Amino acid sequence: QVQLVESGGGAVKAGGSLTLSCEASGYTSVSYCMGWFRQAPGKEREGVAAIDENGRPTYADSVQGRFTISRDNAKNTLYLQMNDLKPEDTAMYYCADGGPNFRCHASQTSYSWWGQGTQVTVS
């Protein structure tokens, strides 16, 4: 069973930066697409970024040029570097694993596994 644990969220002012981390454990975490999605209160889940097993990233238009997704397979860790944060980035951010035969794209929100989330608040 895949387990994902996020960290690194917090409260920042607009224009600031945060780096989210996600430690993965389980038999398949480093072999498949992984990504980040977010959800704000009263809003639908939104895909933010995804990275395939070969390290190729995709991004939502809303974060393109500001966010960078990366993975360190040796450490079983996924990252999301977030720069130039805006109030509209405020949400709970979730790390997710797509599992086998998963279409890897930033727009995805139907992941097989996800963590408990980490809150990002931008004022």
Name the assembly state: single chain
**What percent of the residues sit in helical stretches (DSSP H or I)?**
under 10%
Counted by DSSP, the helix tally is: 0
Helix-strand pattern, N to C?
EEEEEEEEEEE
Alpha-beta classification:
mainly beta
Summed over residues and divided by their number, the pLDDT gives a mean of 93
Distance between the termini: 37 Å
Count of distinct strands:
11
Radius of gyration: 13 Å
Largest beta-sheet details: 7 strands, mixed
Task: Report what the structure shows.
0% of the residues lie in helices and 46% in strands. It is mainly β. A hairpin with a 4-residue loop joins strand 7 and strand 8 (77-82). The protein is globular and about 40 Å long.
Write the layout of secondary structure elements.
Blueprint: E1 3-7, E2 10-12, E3 18-25, E4 34-39, E5 46-51, E6 57-59, E7 67-72, E8 77-82, E9 91-97, E10 113-114, E11 118-122
Parallel strand pairs: 2-11
Antiparallel strand pairs: 1-3, 3-8, 4-5, 4-9, 5-6, 7-8, 9-10, 9-11
